[in-house]
């Protein structure tokens, strides 16, 4: 089997080539990008299995999602895009909406995964504080009328 065939098999069916995600990490015949491709494929399979198990349709294969995600986290970030919220289904990175600032684009993948609200500009802070103040005024008026 050629190295390319091994890689293609590993991406298509990671468990047919490797027993554990950690085996992928120690395979010196793969580059970090190739390891990432194999582990991302494995992650997708593990998420689908987890969903099937939640729906009482699981069977046989042990849950590897946590191990695969930990293995992926050990690889250098490269040009990885933020993954979005950590759900059982996973989520693709969303393209930035028109008119959005570049503030979100400057976050590292680790920062983007934290789920924090980052108010970097005065305008963002004023909008949030104004919204909170307006909500408090509306609640005060609503309770005083009741």
Question: In summary, what is this structure?
Answer:
This protein is mostly helical and 146 residues long. The chain has helices at residues 3-12, 14-17, 21-26, 32-54, 65-74, 109-112, 122-145.
Strand content: under 5%
Give the helix proportion (percent range).
Answer: 55-70%
Give the overall shape, derived from the CA principal axes: elongated
Order of helices and strands: HHHHHHH
Uncertain regions spanning at least 5 consecutive residues: 92-104
Q: How would you describe this structure to a colleague?
A:
Helix content is 55%, strand content 0%. It is mainly α and 146 residues long. The radius of gyration is 22 Å and the shape is elongated.
Produce the secondary structure layout.
Layout: H1 3-12, H2 14-17, H3 21-26, H4 32-54, H5 65-74, H6 109-112, H7 122-145
Helix pairs in contact: 1-4, 4-5
Considering the chains and any ligands shown, give keywords for the structure.
146 residues; mainly alpha; 7 helices
């Amino acid at each position: 089997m050629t190295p390319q065939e091994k890689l293609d098999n590993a991406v298509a069916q990671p468990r047919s080539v490797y027993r554990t995600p950690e085996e992928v990490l120690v395979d010196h015949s793969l580059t970090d990008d190739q390891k990432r491709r194999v582990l991302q494929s494995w992650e997708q399979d593990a998420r689908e299995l987890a969903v099937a198990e939640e729906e009482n349709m699981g069977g046989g294969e042990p849950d590897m999602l946590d191990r695969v995600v930990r293995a992926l986290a050990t690889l250098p970030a490269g040009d990885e895009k933020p993954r979005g919220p950590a759900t059982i289904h996973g989520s693709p990175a969303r393209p930035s909406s028109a008119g959005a600032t570049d503030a979100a684009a400057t976050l590292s993948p680790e920062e983007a995964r934290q789920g924090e609200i980052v108010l970097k500009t005065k305008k963002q802070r004023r909008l949030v504080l104004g919204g909170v103040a307006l909500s408090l005024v509306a609640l005060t008026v609503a309770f005083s009328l009741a």
